[in-house]
Specification:
- The protein is mostly helical and 295 residues long.
- 79% of the residues lie in helices and 0% in strands.
- The chain has one domain.
- Helix 6 runs antiparallel to helix 11.
- It is globular, with a radius of gyration of 19 Å.
- The two termini are 31 Å apart.
- This is Drug/metabolite transporter (DMT)-like permease.
- It is a multi-pass membrane protein.
- InterPro entries: AA-Vitamin_Transporters, EamA_dom, EmrE-like.
């Protein structure tokens, strides 16, 4: 891997790790559903501007509807779940639990897509869930029902990410520009979150819409952590391939915990290390290449 590719990989991990920080700043002030909707809508408009500047050819090959449905699964529901979790979970917690995404992919593949579930992968899934339990039970935040519900919301988001990977391969594979897939997904996510946003305003409107800190964090979340991150990620996919690009999953928790501790004064404990190590080992068990049997 070239030094420039390594720098882009670290930059992408730091950007995605910061997304949990921005969620933690915005969601408790304006609410979870407004945060989720504005994130998707700002990202959609930002990516639209990027695509217009790049003069991308607008041809969805009849798959726009599939992209919209895919957007509900890979962006709409996860955005809502992480925004809900940001009301109660420190940014570092959400970032570490986000690393269970490959494990959820293995679980979804075995249950619904006839993917082989090896003993090693099964052990990885079990170990990863145990790592989440260690983090939430032994971490610096007091264990209560809100903490458990926040962790479950993050796990539901990673479950959606795992499902979206298989659906993308089945519905979108071949012939469609990845950037158009991303834009269509953000359109679907925005449409899905719009009624949730309206319902939250009708039931319990925010006491305040925040100030410059919250809205600058929303812009950073939508434009930087979503729209720009998509472009950077697709560049990495082209340059180093999907396997190496997926190693951002290992790096995101490090930056998520770091930004939370440095900028939000979130407490650190040994549980961050223990839970993070368990999840890292679980990820290695899940994504490591299978050894070939001797002839």
């Amino acid at each position: 891997m070239r030094p420039a590719d390594m720098l882009r990989l670290l930059l992408l991990a730091s950007i995605w790790g910061a997304s949990f920080l921005f969620l933690r700043v915005v969601a408790p002030v304006i609410g979870s559903m407004p945060t989720a909707f504005f994130r998707a809508a700002i990202a959609m408009l930002g990516l639209l501007a990027i695509l217009l500047l790049m003069r991308v050819k607008w041809n969805f090959h009849g798959k726009l509807g599939l992209c919209l449905v895919l957007g509900v699964i890979n962006a709409g529901i996860p955005s809502a779940m992480y925004s809900l979790a940001a009301l109660v979970l420190p940014a570092g917690y959400s970032a570490i639990i986000n690393a269970t995404t490959p494990m959820m992919g293995v679980l979804i593949g075995a249950l619904f897509f006839a993917e082989a579930m090896t003993l090693t992968r099964a052990a990885g899934v079990a170990l990863g869930l145990f790592g989440v339990a260690v983090l939430t039970r032994s971490g610096p935040v007091e264990l209560d029902i809100d903490l458990v519900l926040g962790a479950l919301a993050c796990l539901l988001a990673t479950l959606c990410y795992g499902l979206a990977g298989f659906l993308t391969r089945r519905w979108i594979a071949g012939g469609l520009d990845n950037r158009l897939t991303a834009f269509g997904s953000l359109c679907g996510a925005s449409l899905f979150l719009l009624p949730l946003f309206g319902g939250s305003l009708a039931i319990q409107p925010p006491a305040t819409w925040g100030g410059w800190l919250e809205w600058s964090s929303l812009l950073a979340l939508g434009l930087g952590c979503t729209a720009f991150a998509y472009v950077l990620y697709f560049r990495l996919l082209n340059d180093i391939g999907p396997i190496r690009a997926s190693t951002t999953t290992f790096l995101i928790p490090i930056f998520g915990v770091l930004w939370g501790a440095l900028l939000l004064d979130e407490p650190l404990s040994w549980a961050h290390l223990y839970g993070g190590i368990l999840i890292a080992i679980a990820l290695w068990l899940v994504v490591r290449p299978a050894t070939k049997a001797p002839a």
